[in-house]
């Protein structure tokens, strides 16, 4: 799926949950998503196959979670659960 389609879906889904994402950020996140799904075809990085699920789980959920961090947090590490 082209990045602009993913960016459009991301903006639409974000607006549904009252999360503001600028168009430049949406384009960058869509490029990341495209890169991730491209590599996912070669090595198992995620089990998510549906674009809307991917946008929600891989892009929107981290943005919403970041809103709950203290402004004083300087770094954070996501270890993940592994295995896609």
Give a brief outline of the structure.
This protein is an all-alpha fold.
Structure in words:
Helices cover 57% and strands 0% of the residues. The radius of gyration is 13 Å and the shape is globular. The mean pLDDT is 88. The chain is mainly alpha-helical and 84 residues long. Helix 1 (3-16) packs across helix 2 (23-40) and helix 1 crosses helix 3 (51-66).
What are the SSEs and their pairings?
Elements (H helix, E strand, L loop, with lengths): L2 H14 L6 H18 L10 H16 L18
Termini separation: 20 Å
CA-based gyration radius: 13 Å
| Low-pLDDT segments | none
The helical percent reads: 55-70%
SSE string, helices as H and strands as E: HHH
- How is the biggest beta sheet arranged? none
Please state the structural category.
Answer: mainly alpha
Count of helical segments?
3
Number of DSSP-assigned strands: 0
Mean pLDDT across the residues is: 88
What distinguishing features does this structure have?
84 residues; mainly alpha; 3 helices
